[in-house]
Design brief:
Structural class: mainly alpha
CATH architecture: Up-down Bundle
Number of helices: 21
Shape: globular
Helix content: over 70%
Number of domains: 1
Strand order of the largest sheet: 1-2
CATH superfamily: Sodium/glucose cotransporter
């Protein structure tokens, strides 16, 4: 069977599974809609958390970033993995014990203020919409290539699927759908990685294949360094970013992770605090399978791509190039009219343009793997993008229905709240679809912006809300607003200043970055600003009420703990 037939079969079967699960587990109450009734097992929750975590950025874009950035791409591996550990150890058990469904719910109660709750809702919406834009772009890329439909229609189809199981099933439907999606995406990521590792290095374990030799006895990374060096690029294993920027991006991704609302809410779906810790451990193992494989997939992909295209005659290029040219994600321009594809670091002479987001999806075709493997990767890409999109849409809907509407209408019935949550999710799907058609950047870049916004707005008020009794509502509000605005303005200025404000390219170049920190890492500075303003304002305004201080002390004490007694 051809690629298209295999893709229709595998994507169709996976979609049927997701929809069937959503119908079977549909939410009948707000508790089921928000937290799946709090009855999910730690193992299932670990798999669902991993699927929620490993978005289109992890599955589709991260290996592509590493493929083209080399050593510098490791910031995404370090930041996202380290951030999950930070979340699991420092925040998840305490937030679970606090017993609130959402981050704005925690902020509102901890800082005894509806104003703080509303500010947190606004922050959650900014973060979630920025993040979901990257997921819908991933959906569009997969559909555009494998189902041979325009990218706009691909986004629309993805919107309909997400709408169905997120709006109908709520967190209950999403949780069990994400268990299935994890199985699909990890199988789809690992199978081609094992195939290609065997092809290039004769080692079936991709992580070991990355450090093995190719057919001529040269180590793969040495070979890749030589190929890129011959083409005028920096070596694959050398760093090009400044140390301060690498540190800032890594830290922004780490602490941004700990402030992501759609991941935090996962720890409310298990029965007990102990189960929250256990499910975090399971999730880390499930995440590590993909994250330790991604560098190998990146190196294999860029090596095979350059080997099959660079310096090759234009009239004798492999079939995969023509397939991806139809999506406009690969472009070839014979500038010197010599009939040979020149791939060079200098834009004036470079004739090959490859979108970073296609590397994982195109890798099986480049390696000429069986058509069923290519269809499987398409299904995996869809699973990764849709699982996170669904989690984000749920955060958006609960932020609006529970944290916004119930704040101003506390006597609202549960039935009406559930209706508003579903309407909010539907509206969010439409807006997310728009961002998918008109994305502000490639997938991992857009997601990095979302992490920066989370780092600069949520992380400080959550961490100080748990570990300090002195931070008050005035400090929390001032910190969130200043951190979010600073980071947002910086990102918009440097990423969209030319198109939105007519600024010159020189004005928004890397030479003008604050402290040499790129927009992807500026969330670190926003976070520090948030901490300082939050602490400073709290010092000169009234301390929190005593009952709030007692509550903070109580959530940090393990259940069953008490004072020692002499006998």
């Amino acid at each position: 069977m051809d690629i298209l037939t295999w893709t229709y079969i595998l994507v169709g079967l996976s979609f049927a599974l997701y929809i069937g699960i959503a119908i079977y587990t549909r939410a009948g109450s707000t508790k089921e809609f928000y937290t799946a009734g709090g009855g999910v097992s730690p193992l299932a929750n670990g798999m669902a958390t991993a699927a929620d975590w490993m978005s289109a950025a992890s599955f589709i874009s991260m290996a592509g970033l590493i493929a083209f950035s080399g050593y510098d791409g490791s910031v995404y591996l370090m930041g996202w993995t380290g951030g999950y550990v930070l979340l699991a150890l420092l925040l998840a058990p305490y937030l679970r014990k606090f017993g609130k469904f959402t981050v704005p719910d925690f902020v509102g109660d901890r800082y005894y203020s509806n104003k703080a709750r509303v500010v947190a809702v606004i922050c959650a919406l900014f973060i979630s919409f920025t993040y979901v834009a990257g997921q819908m772009r991933g959906v569009g890329i997969v559909f555009s290539r494998y189902l041979e439909v325009p990218i706009e229609w691909g986004v629309v189809i993805g919107m309909c699927i997400v709408f169905f199981y997120a709006v109908l099933g709520g967190m209950k439907g999403i949780t069990y759908t994400q268990v299935a999606q994890y199985c699909v995406l990890i199988f789809a990521f690992m199978v081609p990685a094992i195939f290609v590792s065997m092809q290039l290095t004769s080692n079936p374990i991709p992580q070991l294949g990355l450090g093995s030799t190719v057919a001529d006895g040269t180590y793969l990374l040495d070979k890749l360094d030589g190929v890129l060096g011959d083409l005028g690029f920096a070596e694959y294993t050398s760093g090009r970013k400044s140390t301060i920027d690498i540190f800032a991006i890594t830290l922004a991704l780490m602490v941004g992770t700990a402030g992501l609302p759609h991941v935090i809410v996962r720890f409310f779906t298990v029965p007990r605090v102990k189960d929250a810790r256990l499910s975090a451990g399971y999730a880390l193992v499930f995440i590590a399978i993909l994250y330790t494989t991604a560098p190998a997939v990146a190196a294999f992909g860029i090596y095979n791509a350059l080997d099959s295209v660079a310096e090759k005659p234009m009239d004798n290029l492999p079939e995969w190039v023509g397939n991806w040219q139809k999506t406009n994600l690969i472009a070839i321009d014979d500038k010197n009219q010599d009939g040979i594809v020149q791939y060079a670091a200098d834009p004036a002479t470079n004739e090959l343009s490859i979108d970073k987001d296609i590397m994982v999806l195109a890798s099986p075709e480049i390696a000429e793997l069986p058509n069923w493997v290519i269809g499987l990767v398409a299904a995996g890409g869809m699973a990764a993008a849709l699982s996170t999109a669904a989690g984000l849409l749920l955060v958006i809907s609960t932020s609006v229905s529970r944290d916004l509407f119930r704040t101003f209408k506390p006597d609202m019935t549960e039935k009406r709240e559930l209706l508003i949550a579903r309407i909010s999710a539907a509206g969010a799907v439409v807006l997310a679809g728009y961002f998918g058609v008109n994305p502000p950047g490639f997938v991992a870049e857009v997601v990095a912006f979302a992490f920066g916004l989370a780092a600069s707005s949520f992380f400080p008020v959550i961490i100080m809300g748990i570990f300090s009794t002195k931070i008050n509502k005035e400090g929390a509000i001032a910190g969130m607003v200043s951190g979010l605005l600073f980071t947002l303005i910086y990102i918009v200025y440097f990423k969209f200043g030319v198109t939105l404000f007519g600024l010159s390219p020189e004005a928004v170049s890397a030479d003008n970055y604050l402290f040499g920190i790129s927009p992807e890492g500026i969330g670190t500075v926003g976070m520090v600003l948030n901490f300082l303003i939050c602490f400073g304002v709290s010092k000169f305004t009234p301390a929190p009420p005593q009952d709030v201080q007692d509550m903070i002390q109580e959530i940090r004490i393990p259940r069953g703990a008490g004072e020692a007694h002499d006998h």
